[in-house]
Amino acid sequence: MRNVKLTVEYDGSGYFGWQVQPDQLTVQSELEAALSRITDSPVSTIASGRTDAGTHALGQVVNFKTSSAIDNASLVRGTNSLLPDDIAIRKAEDAPPDFHARYSALSKIYCYLILNREEPSAFYRNYAWHIPYALDLEAMASALPIIIGKKDFSSFRAVSSSDRNPIRNVLNAQVSSKGDTIRFELEAE
Predict the structure, then answer these.
(1) What's 98's DSSP letter?
(2) Which residues contact 38 (CB under 8 A, 6 or more apart)?
(3) Which tens digit of pLDDT belongs to each residue from 140-178?
(4) Are strands 57-66 and 46-47 parallel, antiparallel or unpaired?
(5) 69: enclosing H helix or E strand
(6) What is the model's pLDDT at position 87?
(7) Which of 67, 123, 152, 189 is 20 to 30 A away from residue 96, measured at CA?
(8) pLDDT class for 58, splitting at 50, 70, 90?
(9) Distance CA 20, CA 27 (A)
(10) Helix (H/G/I), strand (E/B), else coil: 46
């Protein structure tokens, strides 16, 4: 049995998040269906984390076990040919038997975009929060050190969250701008 590690990207605009849900279109259900066809056996994936509806990923790590002998390059090409255009496998590699996408992750990087101009954008509507008035980038940057370190993020989670521990360790936080786009990048355990 092989343990295969995938790096996946997707535009989550049309999905109800990562995790399989009854009667809902999810990224996991699409990926598992395509992988099952390519490997000719049922596939159950494990992701480094779940995403909410409408959330995108550029490098989400996923793993699954398979007895299929298909080489990794063929696995990527074949699975991508079966996936919708808004989901793609960027890379497949054999992982150690004990590799687990969620529990082996050391940190995750989150990126948030703000389109900071008067007019909205047809292109960025699903990728950036539109704020039509001027923002103070210097003030934002000076506030970032406040969130670095171990903090209680209870107020940022759903009331029905099954995660018992709201404490997260933010390792890095940066803000930058290019043209009329402001980018926040946070790295956390």
Answers:
(1) T
(2) 68, 70, 75, 78, 79, 82
(3) 999 999 999 999 888 877 777 667 788 889 999 999 999
(4) antiparallel
(5) none
(6) 98
(7) 189
(8) very high
(9) 8
(10) strand
Amino acid making up residue 14: G
Catalytic annotation, residues = 52
91: its two tokens? 């890379």
The pLDDT-based confidence of 47 (bands split at 50, 70, 90) is very high
Residue 189 CA to residue 171 CA, distance in Å, equals 7
Which tokens sit at 18? 């990562």
The pLDDT, as a whole number, for residue 51 is 83
- Ramachandran area for residue 7 (φ above 0: left; ψ -120 to 50: alpha; else beta): beta
One-letter-per-residue 3-state SS of 156-188: HCCCCCCCCCCEEEEEEEEEEEECCEEEEEEEE
62 backbone dihedrals φ, ψ, rounded to 5°: -135, 145
CB 32 within 8 A of CB 41: no
User: For residues 21 and 17, what is the distance between their CA atoms, to the nearest angstrom?
Assistant: 9
